[in-house]
Write a structure and sequence with these properties.
Blueprint (H helix, E strand, L loop, with lengths): L16 E6 L2 E6 L10 H16 L5 E6 L3 E3 L26 H5 L5 E5 L2 E3 H9 L2 E5 L3 E3 L10 H11 L1 H10 L3 E2 H7 L4 E3 L4 H13 L3 H12 L7 H9 L2 H11 L18
C-alpha cells in the first residue's frame, strides 16, 4: 500500500491536485496529464477537501478550480487506477468524497476556470461553482448513461441549469457542446481566449469575495433551492449493485460498445 499521506493544510492528499495561494485566493489545479486529468476517488476527495480547507482558513477568501493543458476535468477515471491511496484512508470513508454538494453550499466563493474538456463530474463542478469562466476551446458533455450510470446528480442539476428539454438532449444523446453552445445554454456564464481563464477566474473570485458574506449566503441558498434534491439512493444503487455499470465500465476500458447496444446500432470503439 502507498505511503501517500492524507490531506493536511495545503497538501490535498494527492500529487495530482495542487493547492497554491495567490494572496487570499486558493487555487486547486488538477494536474494528471498522463490520464487526461481523469479523477481518482482520492482526487475527488482532494477537491472536496480544498473547498473545506478554504472555508476553514480565515486568511483565504475564495477557491478557484482549474486543470492543466487542454483538459479541465473529464470526470472519473474508469480505469480504476487510484495512484494515490492513504495508509489510513479508512478514517476518511465516512466523508462523502465528491466535492459537488460542498461546492454548491460553500460559504466562500468557488469559481471554475474551465481550460478545456469539461465532461462528467467536471461539468457538475463547473455548473455548481458560483461562476465559471471557460476558454473558447472548452467542450462539454454528460456521457453517464453511455457508461451504465444512472447519474441522478445530472438529472437534478441539469434541468435547473439549462431547462428540461436541453437536459434531455444532453443526457440521452451524449451530445458534445462547444464553448459557445455551453455559454448560450447556461452551463458557464463567461468565455475568454485560451490561456486567460485562470486570471479571469481569479479576478471573479476576488470580486465575489468583496460581497457581504451573510448576504451572499442568503442569495446562494435561494438560488440553490432551484436545483431540487438529488435521489442519492438510486444513484448509489446503480454504481454498487447494477450490472449495467459493470458492463459500461468494462466496455469503456476495452474501447468497445456495451452489450446493451443492439447489433445493428453498434459502432467501432466506444459509444
Amino acid at each position: 500500500m502507498s505511503a501517500t499521506p492524507p490531506p493536511d493544510g495545503d497538501w490535498l492528499g494527492t500529487r495530482f491536485v495542487r493547492f497554491e495561494r495567490r494572496g487570499s485566493i486558493g487555487i486547486a489545479t488538477v494536474d494528471r496529464p498522463h490520464k487526461r486529468n481523469a479523477l481518482t476517488a482520492t482526487m475527488y476527495y482532494a477537491l472536496r477537501y480544498a473547498v473545506d480547507h478554504v472555508n476553514r482558513s480565515p486568511e483565504l477568501a475564495a477557491l478557484v478550480i482549474t486543470g492543466v493543458g487542454d483538459v479541465f476535468i473529464p470526470g472519473g477515471d474508469l480505469s480504476a487506477e487510484d495512484e494515490d491511496e492513504w495508509l489510513d484512508i479508512g478514517k476518511y470513508l465516512h466523508n462523502e468524497a465528491p466535492p459537488f454538494e460542498a461546492i454548491r453550499h460553500s460559504p466562500k466563493p468557488v469559481v471554475s476556470a474551465v481550460n478545456g474538456i469539461c465532461f462528467g463530474g467536471g461539468l457538475i463542478i463547473a455548473m455548481l461553482s458560483d461562476v465559471s469562466v471557460a476558454s473558447t476551446n472548452a467542450t462539454f458533455q454528460a456521457p453517464e448513461v453511455f457508461r451504465g450510470i444512472a447519474d441522478t446528480g445530472y438529472s437534478t442539476y441539469l434541468p435547473g441549469q439549462v431547462g428540461v428539454g436541453r437536459a434531455r438532449d444532453m443526457m440521452l444523446t451524449g451530445r458534445v457542446l462547444s464553448a459557445q453552445e455551453g455559454l448560450e445554454w447556461g452551463l458557464v456564464t463567461r468565455l475568454c481566449p485560451p490561456g486567460e481563464e485562470l486570471d479571469q477566474a481569479i479576478a471573479l473570485a476576488k470580486r465575489i469575495a468583496q460581497g457581504a458574506p451573510r448576504a451572499r449566503m442568503a442569495v446562494k441558498r435561494e438560488i440553490n433551492e432551484k436545483y431540487g434534491l438529488q435521489d442519492r439512493m438510486t444513484m448509489n444503487a446503480s454504481l454498487l449493485m447494477e450490472d449495467e455499470f459493470t458492463e459500461g465500465f468494462l466496455a469503456f476500458k476495452e474501447r468497445r460498445n456495451p452489450s446493451w447496444v443492439p447489433e445493428d446500432l453498434r459502432t467501432e470503439g466506444r459509444v
